[in-house]
Amino acid sequence: MFMKKIFTFTVAVLLTSLLSAQNRYDALRYSQNFYEGSAKSIAMGNALTSIGGDLGAISINPASAGLYRYSEFMFTPSTISTLTETDYLDRNTDKRFFRAGVSSFGYVTPLNGIRKTGSLKGLNVSVSMNKLNNFNNRVSAKGRADNTSWLSALAYNTNGINSSQLDIQSANDTYPFYNSGASWRSVLAWNTNLLDRLPDSENEYIAATENILGNSIVIGGPLDQRFKRETTGGISEYAITLSGNVSNKFYFGFSLGLQSLRYTDRQSYSEFAVNLNQFDSKFKDFEHVYKQTTTGVGINARAGVIFLPVEGLRLGASLATPTYFSLEDEWRESMYAEYSDNYHILLKSPKGSYDYSVITPARANLGISYFFGTRGSISFDYEFVGYEWMRMDDTDSDFDEFDDENDLIDEDFQNTSNIRAGAEFRLNRIFSLRAGYSYYQNPERNYGFDTQFVSCGAGFKFGSGFFADFGIQRRISNSENFRLYDNIPLQGVSSLLAPTGKSTYSAWKVLATIGFRF
After folding, report:
1. CA-CA distances (angstroms) from residue 242 to 21, 79, 132, 252, 371?
2. In terms of DSSP H, where are the helices of 266-350?
3. Strands of 50-203, DSSP E
4. pLDDT of 211-247, one tens digit each?
5. C-alpha span between 501 and 227 (Å, rounded)
6. Which site in 90, 148, 355, 442 is 20 to 30 Å from 262, CA atoms measured?
Protein backbone atom coordinates (compact mmCIF):
# COMPACT_ATOMS: atom_id res chain seq x y z
CA MET A 1 0.00 0.00 0.00
CA PHE A 2 2.77 2.44 0.92
CA MET A 3 5.28 3.59 -1.67
CA LYS A 4 8.73 3.54 -0.08
CA LYS A 5 10.67 6.81 -0.25
CA ILE A 6 14.37 5.93 -0.02
CA PHE A 7 16.78 8.21 1.89
CA THR A 8 20.47 7.77 2.56
CA PHE A 9 21.09 10.95 4.56
CA THR A 10 20.22 12.49 7.90
CA VAL A 11 18.50 15.86 7.92
CA ALA A 12 20.81 18.10 9.95
CA VAL A 13 20.42 21.68 8.81
CA LEU A 14 20.66 24.39 11.48
CA LEU A 15 17.57 26.57 11.53
CA THR A 16 18.04 30.27 12.06
CA SER A 17 14.37 30.85 12.83
CA LEU A 18 11.41 28.72 13.83
CA LEU A 19 7.87 29.37 14.86
CA SER A 20 7.79 29.69 18.62
CA ALA A 21 6.65 26.62 20.54
CA GLN A 22 7.09 28.25 23.93
CA ASN A 23 3.95 28.68 26.00
CA ARG A 24 2.56 29.73 29.37
CA TYR A 25 3.40 26.38 30.98
CA ASP A 26 7.09 27.06 30.37
CA ALA A 27 6.64 30.36 32.18
CA LEU A 28 4.96 28.55 35.06
CA ARG A 29 7.70 25.92 35.30
CA TYR A 30 10.40 28.56 35.63
CA SER A 31 8.38 30.68 38.07
CA GLN A 32 7.73 28.10 40.78
CA ASN A 33 10.04 28.00 43.79
CA PHE A 34 10.17 24.91 46.01
CA TYR A 35 13.00 26.07 48.25
CA GLU A 36 15.77 23.71 49.31
CA GLY A 37 18.44 25.79 51.03
CA SER A 38 20.32 24.30 53.96
CA ALA A 39 19.60 21.10 55.87
CA LYS A 40 18.25 23.19 58.76
CA SER A 41 15.94 25.27 56.57
CA ILE A 42 14.47 22.28 54.73
CA ALA A 43 14.04 20.34 58.00
CA MET A 44 11.98 23.25 59.37
CA GLY A 45 9.82 23.46 56.27
CA ASN A 46 11.71 26.62 55.16
CA ALA A 47 9.60 28.57 57.66
CA LEU A 48 12.53 30.89 58.35
CA THR A 49 11.27 34.33 57.31
CA SER A 50 11.48 35.53 60.93
CA ILE A 51 14.04 33.06 62.36
CA GLY A 52 17.21 34.38 60.72
CA GLY A 53 20.77 33.24 61.25
CA ASP A 54 20.78 30.74 58.39
CA LEU A 55 22.37 31.28 54.98
CA GLY A 56 19.93 28.81 53.45
CA ALA A 57 17.12 31.30 54.19
CA ILE A 58 18.61 34.26 52.32
CA SER A 59 16.56 33.42 49.21
CA ILE A 60 13.47 33.86 51.40
CA ASN A 61 14.54 36.79 53.61
CA PRO A 62 17.95 38.48 53.16
CA ALA A 63 17.65 39.94 56.69
CA SER A 64 18.52 36.41 57.86
CA ALA A 65 22.20 37.30 57.40
CA GLY A 66 21.87 40.32 59.68
CA LEU A 67 21.75 38.19 62.84
CA TYR A 68 25.32 36.91 62.39
CA ARG A 69 27.94 38.31 64.76
CA TYR A 70 30.71 36.09 63.40
CA SER A 71 31.97 34.72 60.12
CA GLU A 72 30.54 31.48 58.82
CA PHE A 73 31.05 29.16 55.87
CA MET A 74 28.56 26.41 55.12
CA PHE A 75 28.14 23.80 52.38
CA THR A 76 25.12 21.55 51.69
CA PRO A 77 25.31 18.52 49.38
CA SER A 78 22.03 16.77 48.66
CA THR A 79 20.38 13.82 47.00
CA ILE A 80 16.93 13.48 45.49
CA SER A 81 15.02 10.27 44.82
CA THR A 82 11.77 10.32 42.86
CA LEU A 83 9.19 7.62 42.24
CA THR A 84 6.57 7.83 39.51
CA GLU A 85 3.89 5.12 39.41
CA THR A 86 1.93 4.93 36.17
CA ASP A 87 -1.28 3.09 35.35
CA TYR A 88 -1.81 2.97 31.57
CA LEU A 89 -3.90 0.54 29.52
CA ASP A 90 -4.34 -1.68 32.61
CA ARG A 91 -0.62 -1.98 33.16
CA ASN A 92 1.28 -0.58 36.15
CA THR A 93 4.81 0.78 35.73
CA ASP A 94 7.15 2.19 38.39
CA LYS A 95 10.10 4.41 37.54
CA ARG A 96 12.67 5.61 40.06
CA PHE A 97 15.22 8.34 39.59
CA PHE A 98 18.19 9.25 41.79
CA ARG A 99 20.49 12.26 41.52
CA ALA A 100 23.05 13.98 43.74
CA GLY A 101 23.78 17.69 43.77
CA VAL A 102 24.43 20.78 45.88
CA SER A 103 21.50 22.58 47.50
CA SER A 104 23.38 25.51 49.03
CA PHE A 105 26.66 27.02 50.05
CA GLY A 106 27.57 30.41 51.45
CA TYR A 107 29.90 32.67 53.35
CA VAL A 108 29.02 35.58 55.66
CA THR A 109 31.36 37.93 57.50
CA PRO A 110 31.03 41.13 59.54
CA LEU A 111 32.31 44.33 57.97
CA ASN A 112 34.64 45.11 60.83
CA GLY A 113 36.45 47.83 58.94
CA ILE A 114 33.36 50.05 58.82
CA ARG A 115 32.81 52.33 61.78
CA LYS A 116 29.45 51.75 63.40
CA THR A 117 27.89 54.51 65.45
CA GLY A 118 24.68 55.06 67.39
CA SER A 119 22.15 52.26 67.17
CA LEU A 120 23.83 50.45 64.27
CA LYS A 121 25.45 47.43 65.92
CA GLY A 122 26.78 45.64 62.87
CA LEU A 123 26.95 45.28 59.09
CA ASN A 124 27.47 41.96 57.33
CA VAL A 125 28.15 40.95 53.76
CA SER A 126 27.43 37.47 52.44
CA VAL A 127 27.69 35.50 49.24
CA SER A 128 25.46 32.46 48.90
CA MET A 129 23.89 29.94 46.53
CA ASN A 130 20.54 28.31 47.21
CA LYS A 131 18.62 25.95 44.96
CA LEU A 132 15.08 27.17 44.33
CA ASN A 133 13.70 24.28 42.30
CA ASN A 134 14.73 21.06 40.60
CA PHE A 135 13.18 19.36 37.61
CA ASN A 136 14.56 15.83 38.10
CA ASN A 137 12.04 13.13 37.32
CA ARG A 138 11.57 10.00 35.23
CA VAL A 139 8.30 8.48 34.03
CA SER A 140 7.43 5.44 31.95
CA ALA A 141 4.13 4.11 30.60
CA LYS A 142 3.40 1.02 28.53
CA GLY A 143 0.43 -1.06 27.49
CA ARG A 144 -1.41 -2.71 24.60
CA ALA A 145 -4.03 -0.84 22.57
CA ASP A 146 -6.44 -2.48 20.11
CA ASN A 147 -8.17 0.43 18.39
CA THR A 148 -6.11 3.59 18.87
CA SER A 149 -2.70 4.84 17.76
CA TRP A 150 -0.41 7.85 18.19
CA LEU A 151 0.09 7.82 14.43
CA SER A 152 -3.68 8.02 13.83
CA ALA A 153 -3.83 11.28 15.78
CA LEU A 154 -0.81 12.56 13.87
CA ALA A 155 -2.45 11.70 10.52
CA TYR A 156 -5.61 13.54 11.51
CA ASN A 157 -3.63 16.60 12.65
CA THR A 158 -1.73 16.64 9.34
CA ASN A 159 -4.92 16.75 7.27
CA GLY A 160 -5.25 19.93 5.22
CA ILE A 161 -1.54 20.23 4.41
CA ASN A 162 -0.60 19.39 0.83
CA SER A 163 1.81 16.47 0.68
CA SER A 164 4.17 18.40 -1.61
CA GLN A 165 4.90 20.68 1.36
CA LEU A 166 6.08 17.71 3.44
CA ASP A 167 8.67 16.25 1.06
CA ILE A 168 12.36 16.31 1.91
CA GLN A 169 14.34 16.00 -1.31
CA SER A 170 17.91 16.30 -0.02
CA ALA A 171 19.94 17.37 2.98
CA ASN A 172 20.27 20.81 1.39
CA ASP A 173 16.58 21.22 0.63
CA THR A 174 15.14 24.70 1.12
CA TYR A 175 12.27 23.14 3.10
CA PRO A 176 9.19 24.55 1.32
CA PHE A 177 7.08 23.27 4.21
CA TYR A 178 8.35 25.98 6.62
CA ASN A 179 5.25 28.03 5.95
CA SER A 180 2.84 25.11 5.68
CA GLY A 181 2.04 24.93 9.39
CA ALA A 182 3.12 21.29 9.52
CA SER A 183 4.82 20.05 12.68
CA TRP A 184 8.21 18.41 12.42
CA ARG A 185 6.70 15.13 13.53
CA SER A 186 4.32 15.27 10.54
CA VAL A 187 7.23 15.97 8.20
CA LEU A 188 9.32 13.16 9.65
CA ALA A 189 6.41 10.70 9.66
CA TRP A 190 5.63 11.45 6.01
CA ASN A 191 9.25 10.98 4.92
CA THR A 192 9.64 7.73 6.86
CA ASN A 193 6.46 6.31 5.25
CA LEU A 194 4.51 6.37 8.50
CA LEU A 195 1.97 8.63 6.79
CA ASP A 196 0.49 8.18 3.31
CA ARG A 197 -2.16 10.01 1.31
CA LEU A 198 -5.68 8.71 1.19
CA PRO A 199 -6.70 7.61 -2.32
CA ASP A 200 -7.59 10.55 -4.58
CA SER A 201 -6.46 13.12 -2.01
CA GLU A 202 -3.49 15.45 -1.81
CA ASN A 203 -4.03 16.66 1.76
CA GLU A 204 -5.70 13.87 3.77
CA TYR A 205 -3.66 11.14 5.37
CA ILE A 206 -3.73 7.61 6.69
CA ALA A 207 -1.25 6.23 9.23
CA ALA A 208 0.91 3.15 8.76
CA THR A 209 -0.91 1.61 11.72
CA GLU A 210 -4.29 1.95 9.91
CA ASN A 211 -6.06 -0.04 7.21
CA ILE A 212 -8.88 0.98 4.88
CA LEU A 213 -11.90 -1.22 5.45
CA GLY A 214 -14.70 -0.34 3.06
CA ASN A 215 -15.51 3.29 3.72
CA SER A 216 -13.81 3.30 7.12
CA ILE A 217 -10.30 3.68 8.47
CA VAL A 218 -9.47 1.21 11.26
CA ILE A 219 -6.41 0.24 13.31
CA GLY A 220 -4.81 -2.78 11.65
CA GLY A 221 -4.27 -4.74 14.85
CA PRO A 222 -3.08 -4.59 18.47
CA LEU A 223 -0.19 -2.26 19.20
CA ASP A 224 2.24 -2.28 22.11
CA GLN A 225 2.68 1.36 23.16
CA ARG A 226 5.66 2.60 25.16
CA PHE A 227 6.45 6.05 26.50
CA LYS A 228 9.49 7.26 28.42
CA ARG A 229 10.29 10.74 29.69
CA GLU A 230 13.19 12.08 31.72
CA THR A 231 13.56 15.67 32.90
CA THR A 232 16.63 17.06 34.64
CA GLY A 233 18.02 20.38 35.78
CA GLY A 234 17.00 23.08 38.19
CA ILE A 235 17.14 26.73 39.21
CA SER A 236 19.87 28.01 41.53
CA GLU A 237 20.20 31.52 42.91
CA TYR A 238 23.53 33.21 43.60
CA ALA A 239 23.08 36.22 45.87
CA ILE A 240 25.25 38.93 47.32
CA THR A 241 23.68 40.40 50.43
CA LEU A 242 24.27 43.41 52.63
CA SER A 243 22.61 43.13 56.03
CA GLY A 244 22.67 44.94 59.31
CA ASN A 245 21.72 45.00 62.99
CA VAL A 246 20.04 47.98 64.62
CA SER A 247 20.00 47.96 68.45
CA ASN A 248 19.82 44.14 68.49
CA LYS A 249 16.10 44.61 67.82
CA PHE A 250 15.80 45.32 64.13
CA TYR A 251 17.62 43.49 61.35
CA PHE A 252 17.56 44.32 57.66
CA GLY A 253 18.96 42.91 54.45
CA PHE A 254 19.19 43.70 50.76
CA SER A 255 20.32 41.19 48.16
CA LEU A 256 20.95 41.08 44.44
CA GLY A 257 20.29 37.66 42.98
CA LEU A 258 21.54 36.03 39.81
CA GLN A 259 19.62 32.89 38.91
CA SER A 260 20.97 30.11 36.74
CA LEU A 261 18.47 27.87 34.95
CA ARG A 262 18.91 24.60 33.08
CA TYR A 263 16.13 22.27 31.99
CA THR A 264 16.34 19.18 29.79
CA ASP A 265 13.39 17.13 28.60
CA ARG A 266 13.79 13.90 26.63
CA GLN A 267 10.65 12.06 25.50
CA SER A 268 10.39 8.83 23.56
CA TYR A 269 7.18 7.31 22.20
CA SER A 270 7.00 4.03 20.25
CA GLU A 271 4.48 1.54 18.92
CA PHE A 272 5.07 -2.09 17.96
CA ALA A 273 2.83 -4.30 15.85
CA VAL A 274 1.80 -7.44 17.74
CA ASN A 275 0.83 -9.33 14.53
CA LEU A 276 2.75 -8.11 11.50
CA ASN A 277 0.41 -9.63 8.92
CA GLN A 278 -2.50 -7.47 10.10
CA PHE A 279 -1.07 -4.21 8.72
CA ASP A 280 -1.47 -3.45 5.00
CA SER A 281 1.48 -1.04 5.13
CA LYS A 282 3.84 -3.78 6.38
CA PHE A 283 4.26 -1.70 9.53
CA LYS A 284 6.47 -3.25 12.22
CA ASP A 285 7.39 -0.49 14.68
CA PHE A 286 8.35 3.17 15.04
CA GLU A 287 9.93 5.45 17.63
CA HIS A 288 9.61 9.23 17.91
CA VAL A 289 12.15 11.05 20.10
CA TYR A 290 11.98 14.68 21.19
CA LYS A 291 14.70 16.42 23.17
CA GLN A 292 14.67 19.99 24.46
CA THR A 293 17.26 21.89 26.45
CA THR A 294 16.53 25.28 28.02
CA THR A 295 19.28 27.41 29.52
CA GLY A 296 19.27 30.93 30.81
CA VAL A 297 20.03 33.45 33.50
CA GLY A 298 17.81 35.73 35.51
CA ILE A 299 18.25 38.69 37.80
CA ASN A 300 16.19 39.99 40.72
CA ALA A 301 16.43 41.81 44.04
CA ARG A 302 15.15 41.17 47.56
CA ALA A 303 14.67 43.22 50.68
CA GLY A 304 13.69 42.02 54.12
CA VAL A 305 13.47 42.82 57.80
CA ILE A 306 13.32 40.92 61.10
CA PHE A 307 11.98 42.67 64.23
CA LEU A 308 12.18 41.54 67.86
CA PRO A 309 9.41 43.53 69.67
CA VAL A 310 9.60 41.56 72.94
CA GLU A 311 11.78 38.83 74.30
CA GLY A 312 11.23 35.56 72.44
CA LEU A 313 9.01 36.96 69.70
CA ARG A 314 10.29 37.61 66.19
CA LEU A 315 8.46 39.09 63.20
CA GLY A 316 9.78 38.97 59.66
CA ALA A 317 8.84 40.26 56.21
CA SER A 318 10.46 40.23 52.79
CA LEU A 319 9.68 41.26 49.25
CA ALA A 320 11.22 39.86 46.07
CA THR A 321 11.00 41.61 42.74
CA PRO A 322 10.06 39.62 39.64
CA THR A 323 12.98 37.71 38.12
CA TYR A 324 13.77 38.67 34.55
CA PHE A 325 14.95 35.50 32.74
CA SER A 326 16.73 35.55 29.38
CA LEU A 327 16.27 32.03 27.99
CA GLU A 328 17.30 29.94 25.01
CA ASP A 329 15.48 26.80 23.91
CA GLU A 330 17.19 24.22 21.72
CA TRP A 331 15.35 21.15 20.48
CA ARG A 332 15.41 18.32 17.97
CA GLU A 333 13.13 15.50 16.90
CA SER A 334 13.84 12.15 15.26
CA MET A 335 11.69 9.40 13.77
CA TYR A 336 12.67 5.78 13.25
CA ALA A 337 10.44 3.41 11.28
CA GLU A 338 10.79 -0.29 10.51
CA TYR A 339 8.70 -2.52 8.27
CA SER A 340 8.22 -6.27 7.96
CA ASP A 341 9.94 -6.34 4.55
CA ASN A 342 13.20 -5.35 6.33
CA TYR A 343 13.07 -1.72 5.20
CA HIS A 344 13.98 0.75 7.96
CA ILE A 345 14.80 4.44 8.10
CA LEU A 346 15.89 7.06 10.62
CA LEU A 347 15.44 10.79 10.04
CA LYS A 348 16.26 13.73 12.29
CA SER A 349 14.89 17.24 12.17
CA PRO A 350 17.21 20.23 12.10
CA LYS A 351 18.23 21.60 15.46
CA GLY A 352 15.88 24.38 16.43
CA SER A 353 16.69 27.29 18.69
CA TYR A 354 14.76 30.25 20.00
CA ASP A 355 15.54 33.11 22.38
CA TYR A 356 12.87 34.63 24.58
CA SER A 357 12.32 36.06 28.03
CA VAL A 358 10.14 35.18 31.02
CA ILE A 359 9.27 37.57 33.81
CA THR A 360 8.37 35.59 36.93
CA PRO A 361 5.96 36.77 39.67
CA ALA A 362 6.81 39.06 42.54
CA ARG A 363 6.81 37.39 45.97
CA ALA A 364 6.07 38.57 49.48
CA ASN A 365 6.76 36.68 52.71
CA LEU A 366 5.52 37.27 56.24
CA GLY A 367 6.75 35.29 59.22
CA ILE A 368 6.28 34.97 62.95
CA SER A 369 8.27 32.85 65.39
CA TYR A 370 8.69 32.38 69.09
CA PHE A 371 11.77 31.22 70.98
CA PHE A 372 11.35 29.33 74.24
CA GLY A 373 14.57 30.58 75.75
CA THR A 374 17.34 28.25 74.63
CA ARG A 375 15.05 25.21 74.44
CA GLY A 376 13.69 25.70 70.95
CA SER A 377 11.37 27.63 68.68
CA ILE A 378 8.28 27.45 66.48
CA SER A 379 7.75 29.44 63.29
CA PHE A 380 5.06 30.13 60.71
CA ASP A 381 5.37 31.69 57.26
CA TYR A 382 2.90 33.03 54.74
CA GLU A 383 3.99 33.58 51.14
CA PHE A 384 2.08 35.38 48.40
CA VAL A 385 3.03 34.72 44.75
CA GLY A 386 1.46 36.72 41.92
CA TYR A 387 1.31 34.16 39.11
CA GLU A 388 -1.20 36.27 37.20
CA TRP A 389 1.65 38.76 36.69
CA MET A 390 3.91 36.35 34.79
CA ARG A 391 4.82 37.55 31.32
CA MET A 392 6.62 36.21 28.26
CA ASP A 393 8.33 38.27 25.60
CA ASP A 394 10.30 37.88 22.40
CA THR A 395 13.89 39.09 22.66
CA ASP A 396 13.98 40.29 19.04
CA SER A 397 11.70 42.76 17.31
CA ASP A 398 8.41 40.86 17.33
CA PHE A 399 7.04 42.34 20.54
CA ASP A 400 3.54 40.86 20.13
CA GLU A 401 4.76 37.28 19.65
CA PHE A 402 3.45 36.23 23.07
CA ASP A 403 0.32 38.38 23.30
CA ASP A 404 -1.97 35.33 23.13
CA GLU A 405 0.04 33.41 25.72
CA ASN A 406 0.07 36.39 28.07
CA ASP A 407 -3.71 36.64 27.74
CA LEU A 408 -3.96 32.93 28.59
CA ILE A 409 -1.76 33.47 31.66
CA ASP A 410 -4.42 35.85 32.97
CA GLU A 411 -7.15 33.30 32.22
CA ASP A 412 -5.51 30.05 33.33
CA PHE A 413 -3.41 31.01 36.35
CA GLN A 414 -4.17 32.48 39.75
CA ASN A 415 -2.20 34.18 42.51
CA THR A 416 -1.39 31.78 45.33
CA SER A 417 -1.00 31.70 49.11
CA ASN A 418 1.65 29.33 50.45
CA ILE A 419 2.06 28.29 54.09
CA ARG A 420 5.13 26.94 55.87
CA ALA A 421 5.59 25.84 59.49
CA GLY A 422 8.60 24.67 61.45
CA ALA A 423 9.77 23.72 64.92
CA GLU A 424 13.09 23.10 66.65
CA PHE A 425 13.70 21.43 70.00
CA ARG A 426 17.13 21.64 71.59
CA LEU A 427 17.80 18.68 73.80
CA ASN A 428 21.08 20.22 74.98
CA ARG A 429 23.77 22.59 73.75
CA ILE A 430 24.98 19.98 71.25
CA PHE A 431 21.92 18.28 69.76
CA SER A 432 18.68 19.63 68.24
CA LEU A 433 15.65 18.01 66.60
CA ARG A 434 13.61 19.75 63.87
CA ALA A 435 10.40 19.22 61.92
CA GLY A 436 8.48 21.13 59.27
CA TYR A 437 5.58 21.28 56.86
CA SER A 438 5.04 23.36 53.72
CA TYR A 439 2.03 23.83 51.48
CA TYR A 440 2.16 25.38 48.01
CA GLN A 441 -1.20 26.28 46.49
CA ASN A 442 -1.85 25.20 42.91
CA PRO A 443 -1.35 28.17 40.56
CA GLU A 444 -3.56 26.65 37.84
CA ARG A 445 -7.25 27.51 37.96
CA ASN A 446 -8.64 24.33 36.39
CA TYR A 447 -5.89 21.70 36.39
CA GLY A 448 -2.93 20.57 38.46
CA PHE A 449 -2.76 20.12 42.22
CA ASP A 450 -1.53 21.63 45.47
CA THR A 451 1.95 20.54 46.53
CA GLN A 452 2.81 19.54 50.11
CA PHE A 453 6.02 18.57 51.88
CA VAL A 454 6.77 17.13 55.32
CA SER A 455 10.27 17.21 56.75
CA CYS A 456 12.45 16.51 59.75
CA GLY A 457 16.08 16.72 60.73
CA ALA A 458 18.73 17.13 63.39
CA GLY A 459 21.55 19.50 64.20
CA PHE A 460 24.88 19.03 65.99
CA LYS A 461 27.29 21.62 67.39
CA PHE A 462 30.86 20.67 68.19
CA GLY A 463 32.63 23.24 70.30
CA SER A 464 32.39 26.83 69.14
CA GLY A 465 33.45 26.46 65.53
CA PHE A 466 31.95 23.42 63.77
CA PHE A 467 28.37 22.31 63.17
CA ALA A 468 26.57 19.68 61.11
CA ASP A 469 22.90 19.52 60.16
CA PHE A 470 20.80 16.86 58.48
CA GLY A 471 17.42 17.25 56.84
CA ILE A 472 14.97 14.88 55.15
CA GLN A 473 12.01 16.03 53.12
CA ARG A 474 9.21 13.97 51.59
CA ARG A 475 6.94 15.27 48.91
CA ILE A 476 3.43 13.98 49.55
CA SER A 477 2.14 11.97 46.59
CA ASN A 478 0.09 13.66 43.89
CA SER A 479 -1.83 12.01 41.05
CA GLU A 480 -3.00 13.32 37.71
CA ASN A 481 -4.50 11.89 34.54
CA PHE A 482 -2.76 12.15 31.18
CA ARG A 483 -3.06 11.32 27.49
CA LEU A 484 -0.06 10.61 25.28
CA TYR A 485 -1.76 11.95 22.15
CA ASP A 486 -4.90 13.73 21.03
CA ASN A 487 -8.41 12.36 20.71
CA ILE A 488 -9.67 12.45 17.14
CA PRO A 489 -13.28 12.66 15.94
CA LEU A 490 -15.25 9.61 14.83
CA GLN A 491 -14.14 8.14 11.51
CA GLY A 492 -16.68 5.86 9.88
CA VAL A 493 -17.76 3.31 12.45
CA SER A 494 -14.55 3.51 14.49
CA SER A 495 -13.99 5.73 17.50
CA LEU A 496 -10.35 6.68 17.93
CA LEU A 497 -10.05 8.02 21.47
CA ALA A 498 -6.67 8.30 23.12
CA PRO A 499 -6.30 6.13 26.25
CA THR A 500 -6.24 7.95 29.58
CA GLY A 501 -3.56 7.02 32.09
CA LYS A 502 -2.88 7.98 35.68
CA SER A 503 0.48 9.03 37.06
CA THR A 504 1.37 9.32 40.78
CA TYR A 505 4.50 11.23 41.77
CA SER A 506 6.40 11.35 45.07
CA ALA A 507 9.94 12.29 46.05
CA TRP A 508 12.49 12.29 48.86
CA LYS A 509 15.33 14.76 49.47
CA VAL A 510 18.20 14.27 51.88
CA LEU A 511 20.43 17.24 52.74
CA ALA A 512 23.55 17.42 54.91
CA THR A 513 25.12 20.75 55.88
CA ILE A 514 28.58 21.19 57.32
CA GLY A 515 29.72 24.58 58.56
CA PHE A 516 32.51 26.46 60.28
CA ARG A 517 32.21 29.58 62.42
CA PHE A 518 35.16 31.80 63.18
Report:
1. 40, 30, 20, 8, 25
2. none
3. 72-88, 91-110, 120-134, 137-145, 195-197
4. 998 888 889 999 999 999 999 999 999 999 999 999 9
5. 12
6. 442
